[in-house]
Amino acid sequence: MASRSDDAILVRLVRRGDRRATERLAETYWPVAWKAAFSVLFDRTLSDDVTQEALDRVLRSLDTFDETRPLGPWISRIAVNRALDELRRDRRLVRGGESAAAPEAQTWHEEASEAEIAVAQAVAALPPEKRVVLVLHYWLDYTVREVAEVLGLPAGTVAARLSRARAELREALKEAENAA
Amino acid sequence: MRPELDQQMLRDSRRARPEPDPAAMRRGIAQLLAIGERAVRRRRMPLVAGVALALVLALSLVAVAAERVIEAQSAEATTRVVDRTFVCTAGVIRGLRGIKISAHPRNEWGDASGAAMTSGQGATSTIVGLEAGPVPSGGRPTGAAHYTHLKCRQVSMRIPGTTRPRVPLARTGLQGGPLTFGEGHNCEVWPRILVRIRAVFQRPTGWSLRPSQNPQAFPPVMRAPGTMREAYLAVRTEAGSRPLAFVALTQTQARLFVAPRCWRS
């Protein structure tokens, strides 16, 4: 990951229209944005689209970006917001009860442990409204207050959903282990 | 036996997230660079470039006319099959960037089947269209494949550094079926989409430019006239290549399929 001073130099070069710098920024932060989007969507193809939209927004907003801030978290948040827009547009956040089809085991990261994959798979199987609060908090390091703000929910509701999500995960993992 | 789930395990499970597909990443970055270059050129254009802008427009028309000559000389000029893939720009209606896919079977007045992709408002809204042409019993004596030249760029192997994106003529991932009456569906999209049209004509045809006296209001249109036996229109997102719509036409029938995210207009 680039240091803060690398980021500042990169931003200045991109603002000047330096194509190589733009390419470098996109190559460095595409995976960051993509993983943030995938955390919300659990869909590779949707994540491709959302990542391109997010990075396009990033490039358009660089003129007003405070270059003393690190790029990664900012880009990640833009990708998350776009991904949430996609979920809302699809009405999956509102409908409730319809979870993403959990990705096949072989699409998970090859270096992940069996336990990590099992938990990730259980997370993917949660209903969207619980899954989103969980990944925002545990995978993308949003505080409860930040999750509440981005989802437009009271903090208490977020805390309650987190608690229920964790309980559901424990049950799901126990069942999976008993079935194995 | 696995330890009970705790907060650290939850955090660690993010390591299981897959990596992005390198090919999709390369495609997406290539498009971002192309957009960026256009934006830089716009920023650098001097304010006094009214004359320069007029010159550019004039040159564009010349280039379009030259393309007409090339089109006339190309292999498609005498072919029964036209098959083109475009990157098209979607317009904005009421703050939403989107397209409308519509299709109709042969109607009671004898008009043959047709399909269109429109975007934006007014006379500039039609981007791509297919009209199968007259049916044996009569009807409107028109048939053509057409697209709006200023909103669509044909994807070609002649452009260095690009590869022709694949737009299958298939209904995979889409919902719909044969139409009894005309139908239209709206889909919210990102600015650029991939569009493929394929038409099998009864007689050889070729593309020609239908110029416009008022390009702002009525953009020039590339048109391949003739009566079709069958025709297809397929639309996908650009980066992730997600299917959005697919239309299959014969002279009398139309089948329309759209993505679940689209809604009936």
Please describe what this structure looks like.
The complex is a heterodimer of chains A (180) and B (265). By secondary structure, chain A is mainly alpha-helical. Helix content of chain A is 73%, strand content 0%. Chain A has nine helices and no strands. Chain A has helices at 4-15, 19-41, 44-61, 71-89, 92-95, 114-124, 128-139, 144-151, 155-179. In chain A, helix 1 (4-15) crosses helix 2 and helix 3 crosses helix 4 (71-89). Chain A is elongated and about 60 Å long. Chain B is 20% helix and 37% strand. Residues 71-76 and 156-160 of chain B have low confidence and may be disordered. The longest helix of chain B is centred in the N-terminal third of the chain and has 24 residues, at 50-73. In chain B, strand 13 (228-237) and strand 14 (243-250) form a beta hairpin. By secondary structure, chain B is of the alpha+beta class. Chain B is built from three helices and 16 strands. In chain B, strands 2, 3, 4, 5, 6, 9, 11, 12 and 16 form a nine-stranded antiparallel sheet that branches. A seven-stranded antiparallel sheet of chain B has the order 7-1-10-13-14-15-8, with no helix packed on it. At the A-B interface, helix 2, helix 3, helix 6, helix 7 and helix 9 of A face helix 1 and helix 2 of B.
